[in-house]
Design brief:
The protein is α/β, with parallel strands linked by helices. 45% of the residues lie in helices and 19% in strands. Helix 2 (46-62) crosses helix 9 (262-276) and helix 6 (167-179) packs across helix 11.
């Protein structure tokens, strides 16, 4: 009897999945021409990779050609402005991140798009963790030791990040705020120069993504903690595990132009969630140091709101302006 119920359950799941694919495919066929995923960055980066993974999988689910269109420039803002002018019919999606929807509205006096008025959230697709690292030769062994050192040596408490105005920049300021010290930010031209500075002992600490620094741990740099809710490595704790209410992750998500009908937004979200649940997709992202997510439009809208509440006060207090 149990085996029969199990078989019936699996059959029902299969039927439901086939019904979803058929429904999405019928809708997609109504779109004239191909569906495009706009990536506002050059090929090769994390946004481009996730865009291409989704394009490959969505073409099978939607039964329609799905292409990636790279529109790089101005830190992603050119691509975002281009995306807002696309038809609101489900034929265009934008791969975005907190830099475009959380940071840019606060640091640019003039922005060619409004995240809330020009776009509708569809789904978050992946998250990536930030890490706090010190040189492998540093006497600092853990976050507690670092906090004590920062308080005793406020004038030496400099930290590096891969770019001014990036989330790692503001995450470092968040750590300083927690320690009660206004730390000085040192900007490097990307993750490579930052890791070189850390390895050489030219900077006491650095903040970047887990993927950018994990390969150098623990021989060349020492990652003290990750900023997510769970461990990325067995010997690297999270800030929260160590008693520090410090949390912050980066992510990528999908949005569509404003006025896209809700039925289309929901269908796209369902398709994207299906992609992000695929074992091979999860494995690919894990190899990149990221985690597949996949959310409803409402859940994604809540994530964006929460990140604005998390990062907004830090960004405003920094006084940083990009123009």
């Amino acid at each position: 009897m149990k085996s029969f119920i199990k078989r019936l359950f699996l059959i029902l799941i299969g039927v439901a999945a086939m019904s979803l694919v058929f429904s999405l495919s019928v809708w997609a066929q109504e779109i004239k021409g191909h569906i495009k995923i706009i990536v506002p960055y050059a090929p090769g980066g994390s946004s481009d990779i996730i865009g291409r993974i989704m394009a490959e999988k969505l073409k099978d689910i939607l039964g329609q050609t799905v292409i990636v269109e790279n529109k790089p420039g101005a830190g992603g803002r050119i691509g975002a402005e281009y995306a807002k002018h696309q038809p609101p019919d489900g034929s265009s999606m934008l791969v975005m991140n907190p830099a475009l929807f959380v940071v840019s509205p606060l640091v640019y006096s003039k922005l060619g798009y409004d995240p809330d008025l020009d776009f509708i959230p569809v789904s978050q697709v992946q998250i990536y963790h930030f890490v706090l690292s010190v040189p492998a030769t540093s006497p600092i062994k853990d976050v507690k030791g670092l906090m004590e050192w920062i308080k005793k040596n406020p004038k030496q408490a400099n930290f590096g990040s891969p770019a001014t105005g990036s989330l790692p920049h503001f995450f470092g300021l968040m750590i300083g705020k927690y320690a009660g010290v206004e730390m000085v930010h040192v900007s490097y031209n990307g993750s490579g120069p930052l890791i070189t500075a850390l390895i050489g002992g030219h900077i006491p600490m650095g903040v970047d993504t887990y993927d950018a620094q994990s390969r150098y741990h623990p021989d060349k740099v020492r990652i003290l903690a990750t900023a997510g809710t769970s461990r990325k490595h067995s010997d690297i704790p999270t800030f929260k595990e160590m008693g520090y209410e410090i949390e912050g992750v980066g992510w990528n998500g999908i949005v569509v132009p404003a006025k896209t009908p809700k039925v289309i937004v929901d269908k796209l979200s369902q398709a994207i969630v299906s992609v992000m649940k695929m074992p091979d997709v999860k494995q690919k992202l894990e190899q990149m140091g990221a985690e597949a997510t996949g959310t409803s439009p409402e859940e994604f809208a809540k994530i964006i709101k929460q990140d604005r509440e998390r990062w907004g006060p830090i960004i405003k207090a920094s006084g940083y302006k990009a123009d």
